[in-house]
Design a protein that fits this description.
The complex is a heterotrimer of chains A (359), B (546) and C (238). By secondary structure, chain B is mainly α. Chain B is built from 28 helices and two strands. The relative contact order of chain B is 0.13. Chain C contains six helices and ten strands. Chain C has helices at 43-51, 97-102, 110-123, 139-151, 169-186, 197-203, and strands spanning 3-10, 20-27, 32-37, 58-63, 66-69, 82-85, 157-161, 189-194, 206-211, 214-220. Chain C is globular and about 50 Å long. Classes of the chains: A alpha/beta (359), B mainly alpha (546), C alpha/beta (238). Chain A: InterPro entries: Ferric-bd, SBP.
């Protein structure tokens, strides 16, 4: 009995030491890399807070380290919580780069003075102007569109050329869309506030609620399945979910996705709603140079190809072609608004959706 | 005068340590609550008008139904396995705890994956017999679905606590009732349920706290509750103050529940009274009755563990080649490391507080005991903010010290595992504390007093006597905390150091992107480790001397 | 006076009423006192106050000239050098009889420990049970071990809380005469609490009756074996 107890204590002490060792290690690596006597390659590090979480992103970071010798330290998390963390850490924060999959969040980070402007010829060349923040506080890296998917047997695509078509009486009980909890819907409504004004946006949201095929539930993929199963006929979803389903390991998901066709709405009017993944350098960054190199790397043609290809997003760099699947859907006209407005209107968008009873 | 007399009894290491722990727990919570009084929340009126009524309705519906079903399933199973013998009963005894190994949000994703249009059931029907079903029969993404998942994967809290009570304490009453000619149903409803009220309430309050704390399941199922609303106002509306008001409302509900629990339990008695405790002798069931009992247990076991487990294995095989990499060994080591250290420290802290609060019957000691529950009742993300605010302050305070030590990092504590482990302690202290408190209740104070009369002071007594006697509660508390930390998500996600991933964060990474198949490998490792821990937990409790 | 208790008051928790109210008692060295009373009269509480497990709200306790409790002092129970036999004995279930007895002998050398343990085991006539665990003993045997354990560290005062309540009637009569014999052999000052007047008569030199938290009268009992007469000390009731 005594022995078990001693053994346990020993194990605990060992574990605590390992734990301390683990976190201490980072300190030592950062110190080492600071003094650069270990290897020629060691060119410092860059600390990344990212709300994106794809295995392919990690492969890109590794590639960056290989090319430049700069080590990439990562914390993945939910975008909002990362912003909250940056805010609390203030100037002491160790983060150098903040990356997230939503322009609204980038805008909020900017608003909270968590980012700094930086000039980069490389980025100015690689990223078109509408995807750059006006002060160059952040740069878009990939795009995705929020489109309308439908079943060709049941829906005539002519009926759903606009987001507003979804609110027509014909569509009553046929529209599938997820909950207002979701940032993609929040951004969509926010973009409408920016373009058409609050009143119109609220009317639209009310119309969607009236036409819902069922209470909002599940994720974007579940909306696609809802069409296949016949619960609804049209669904609002992001392009890349459809891409993922078409390439899923689960053949049933592939079958569902193959049944669907897509419409890029508002082509004749204001353009399809897009959102971006983007990155900026934190105002507290202690490795500004490395951070800039890192973002420049992500905008480079080789990185952009991978970045966008594996996740079926549109590359921000116009020199890079989108994946075959996306190309097959053709070119489309994008909403012409400053993406910062998504962030500015986000709060109001949520209120509107609450007010019309969008769950 | 009175204080002066009492002082020597109070001046000991236990009081000091307990004070420190209480302060450590309170600080993060206070740092949040302080905003509640200082700032006006801009969206509060909007929330009151459009969100709150719905929240209250949804939350109470889920609580009431989950509570009711969990009690029903938990107590009926507990009664079956303690009072009767039937095929495979020894297996069910511990297998019925296994649903705890599957976190509810993973269970939710998995069940939806089974039942939805591309799930195995509909696919089979469609592809083999060309049957297309009405979706609404198979739709689980709604309130009844959430209640179903919560009930199935949380009822073991009621089951374990009630079973422990029934098998140790109820023999005399139940046998008397049998002799008085009551049939099984009458005994169940008129004797078993009333006498195990305390145990049931204890178990169901754990279930309800877990439900209130859940974010993953309700947000996926589209059932707005307090935790989703807290996230939405805080992050979506960027209105921390409203989020805190919601948290405070939630805390109010939690405290109301806890007070109701206290009232329902009535005055606790030390069970180490003179009454001899005798285990209940099971009756052997035969024929149809035996098979009914078996089928009921198997049915629940199948729904609560077997089906989702098999589905996860299937998905793991499907995606194994794409996903598996040596990284998973590292993830597993990380998960085991934080769970082990976290759970151990939870138990150390729990023992210190429990020992202190039983030694002194004062307002402070009682409050200290209540404070332990705080962390368990607040959503993880809220704790995370509180704790990191405190740690960053500490780091800033220690800045000079770091400089003289020649360290570069100015946020040393708040970017190390230290903050994560501290958060686990705050979050799960209640689990360890409840277990230890029950253990102390059982042995009472007499052994401690006997030891002190023989000249050993409190601390020596603790190591030579108390600790030995509450070994089993300590181990079982440790295992429960271990499993909980292994499954924990929100704290781990936001408070971990750079490049530190665990199984739970990996599973989240995929699940959050609706890649539930890809998430299976990480999930299944969590489930298997938890299942092993549960088996050990069961063995420890079974071996406990009566 | 060996033990002096003056003006002792005590109340549990938040109750207004004093469980012990103005309790006075003086005891001579070597005396065996029995505190007698109905259940709830506070007799066990007096023992707990004496040994320091409870803190009085008022009053003074002096043992062998040393102040244990007054307005300025409080000696912790482990420092008082008092032995106590608990109602249900509280033998540590995870230790053998020998380990239980040696438990209080922490300052002794290994050899001295063994010797002292053997002495007290001899005293209670339980030599052959040294290696057993408490649950392997009968109630009467357990009681003797509990007695031996509390005597081992040579306390200045021995307290016994309802020592017979867990024994059956036949055993009770046999044990109580044994108990008196053992205590008298060691010459230790003892106080025991009982609700049974017969027990008290059989063991005690003097009986104190408690009612409503105070000592109400005293009686001296002459048993056949008694040699010396107790000094008269009036215990006042207020």
């Amino acid at each position: 009995m005594k022995n078990t107890w001693n053994l346990f204590c020993l194990a605990l002490i060992l574990a605590i030491l390992t734990a301390c060792g683990n976190s201490g290690e980072e300190e030592s690596t950062s110190n080492e890399s600071g003094s650069t006597d270990e290897s020629e390659e060691s060119a410092g590090e860059v600390n990344l807070y990212t709300g994106r979480h794809y295995d392919t992103d990690q492969a890109l970071y590794d590639q960056f380290t290989e090319e430049t010798g700069i080590k990439v330290n990562v914390i993945q998390g939910k975008d909002d919580e990362l912003i909250a963390r940056l805010e609390r850490e203030g100037q002491a924060s160790e983060a150098d780069v903040f990356m997230t999959a939503d322009a609204g969040r980038l805008h909020r980070a900017e608003d909270l003075e968590l980012l700094q402007s930086f000039e980069s010829d490389v980025l100015n060349e690689n990223i078109p102007e509408n995807l750059r923040e006006t002060d160059n506080q952040w740069y878009g890296l990939t795009k995705r569109a929020r489109i309308i998917a439908y079943h060709p047997d049941r829906v005539n695509p002519e009926e759903i050329q606009d987001y507003s078509d979804l609110t027509s009486e014909d569509m009553a009980g046929r529209v599938l869309i997820r909950s207002s909890d979701n940032i993609y819907n929040q951004s969509l409504v926010a973009s409408m506030i920016a373009i058409d004004g609050e009143e119109a946006a609220k009317e639209w949201a009310q119309g969607i609620v009236n036409n819902m095929a069922r209470d909002p539930e599940g994720g974007d993929r579940d909306q696609a399945k809802g069409i296949a199963s016949g619960e609804g006929d049209v669904a609002v979803m992001n392009t890349y979910y459809l891409g993922q389903m078409l390439n899923s390991e689960d053949e049933e998901e592939v079958k569902v996705a193959e049944q669907l066709e897509v419409v890029f709405p508002n082509q004749d009017t204001t353009g399809t709603h897009i959102n971006i993944s983007g990155a900026g350098i934190t105002s507290s960054s202690k490795n500004v140079e490395n951070a800039q190199k890192f973002i420049e790397f992500l905008s480079s043609e080789s990185a952009q190809e991978q970045f966008a290809e594996t996740n079926y997003e549109y590359p921000a760099n116009p020199n890079v072609e989108a994946s075959e699947l996306l190309q097959s859907w053709g070119e489309f006209k994008e909403q012409d608004i400053n993406l910062s407005e998504l962030g500015e209107n986000n709060n109001r968008a949520i209120q509107i959706m609450n007010e019309v009873g969008w769950k | 005068m009175k204080l002066f007399r009492k002082l020597p009894g109070y001046l000991n290491i236990w009081t000091v340590l307990s004070m420190i722990i209480v302060i450590l727990i309170l600080l993060p919570n206070l740092s949040i609550l302080i905003n509640f009084f200082t700032e006006r929340a801009e969206n509060w009126e909007h929330i009151q008008e459009f969100i709150l009524p719905n929240l209250l309705k949804n939350t109470s519906l889920i609580l009431v139904f989950t509570g009711f079903f969990a009690i029903f399933i938990g107590t009926s199973l507990a009664w079956l396995v303690s009072a009767y013998d039937f095929p495979m009963k020894r297996f069910f005894k511990w297998a019925l705890i296994l649903p705890l190994a599957i976190p509810p949000y993973i269970a939710g994703y998995t069940y939806n994956g089974i039942l939805n249009y591309t799930g195995v059931i509909q696919t089979t029907l469609r592809n083999n017999w060309d049957i297309t079903v009405n979706q609404s029969y198979f739709n689980i993404l709604n309130m009844p679905g959430a209640i179903f998942i919560f009930t199935l994967f949380l009822f073991p809290y009621v089951y374990t606590i009630t079973r422990a009570f029934l098998s140790h304490q109820s023999a005399a009453l139940v046998e008397n009732a049998r002799l008085l000619g009551r049939n099984a149903w009458e005994i169940y409803f008129r004797v078993v349920i009333p006498i195990s009220r305390g145990a049931i309430v204890g178990g169901v309050s754990l279930v309800l706290l877990e439900v209130l704390n859940d974010y993953g399941l309700v947000s996926y199922f589209g059932v707005p509750t307090f935790s989703t609303a807290i996230f939405q106002t805080w992050f979506g509306m960027n209105d921390l103050n409203s989020a805190i008001k919601l948290s405070a409302t939630l805390m109010f509900i939690v405290f109301a529940l806890l007070i109701i629990e206290k009232l329902l339990r009535g005055r606790k008695k030390y069970s180490a009274t003179t009454a001899k405790v005798r285990p209940l002798t099971p009756i052997k069931l035969r024929g149809a009755k035996a098979w009914t009992a078996f089928s009921y247990c198997f049915f629940i076991f199948m729904l609560g563990f077997l089906i989702p487990f098999i589905q996860m294995i299937d998905w793991t095989i499907l995606t194994f080649e794409k996903i598996a990499s040596p990284v998973f060994t590292q993830l597993m080591m990380n998960s085991l490391l934080v769970s082990f250290v976290g759970a151990s420290l939870v138990m150390v802290f729990a023992v210190i507080i429990a020992n202190f609060s039983r030694m002194h019957q004062s307002f402070f000691s009682k409050s200290a005991a209540r404070v332990t529950i705080l962390g368990y009742s607040i959503p993880g993300a809220v704790i995370a903010v509180g704790i990191s605010t405190v740690f960053i302050d500490i780091d800033n305070f220690l800045f000079k010290f770091y400089e003289t030590m020649g360290m570069e990092a100015s946020l040393f504590l708040s970017t190390s595992l230290f903050i994560l482990i501290s958060a686990y302690i705050i979050r799960f202290l209640a689990i360890g504390y409840n277990s230890v408190e029950a253990g102390f209740d059982k042995i009472g104070n007499k052994y401690t007093e006997a030891s002190r009369m023989l000249g050993l002071n409190l601390t020596k007594t603790f190591f030579k006597v108390d600790l030995r006697m509450i070994k089993v509660p300590i181990i079982s508390g440790f295992i429960l905390a271990f499993i909980d930390i292994l499954k924990e998500l929100p704290l781990t996600l936001i408070l971990r150091p750079f490049n530190f991933d665990t199984l739970a964060t990996k599973a989240y990474q995929y699940a959050n992107d609706e890649q539930i198949q890809e998430a299976s490998l990480a999930s299944i490792i969590i489930v298997v480790i938890s299942a092993i821990a549960i088996y050990v937990f069961h063995q420890v409790l079974e071996k406990e001397p009566k | 006076m060996f033990v002096q208790i003056k003006d002792l008051c005590f109340c549990y928790g938040n109750t207004k009423q004093n469980t012990i109210n103005q309790f006075h008692l003086e005891i001579q060295q070597g005396e065996i006192i029995s505190i007698q009373g109905d259940s709830g009269s506070g007799k066990s509480t007096v023992l707990r106050l004496l040994c320091g497990l409870e803190v009085p709200s008022k009053g003074t306790i002096t043992i062998d000239g040393e102040v244990m409790t007054d307005d300025r002092h409080f000696v912790l129970p482990e420092k008082r050098g008092i032995g106590m036999v608990f109602q249900d004995y509280a033998l540590f279930p995870h230790m053998t009889v020998l380990e239980n007895i040696q438990f209080g002998l922490k300052k002794y050398s290994r050899k001295a420990k063994k010797q002292r343990a053997e002495e007290v085991l001899e005293l209670v006539n339980m030599m052959s049970f040294a290696k057993r665990y408490p649950h392997e003993l009968s109630g009467g045997q357990q009681q003797r071990i509990a007695l031996a354990r509390s005597l081992a560290p040579k306390p200045s005062l021995l307290l016994l809380d309802e020592p017979f309540s867990n024994l059956d009637a036949g055993l009770q009569i046999k044990i109580r005469s044994e108990l008196r014999e053992i205590i008298k052999k060691t010459g230790i000052t003892s106080i025991f609490v009982s609700h049974d007047l017969e027990d008290s008569k059989a063991i005690a030199d003097r009986i104190v009756t408690m009612r409503d938290g105070a000592a109400h009268n005293w009686e001296s009992i002459c048993t056949t074996t008694r040699k010396e007469k107790p000094a008269l000390h009036l215990v006042e009731s207020k």
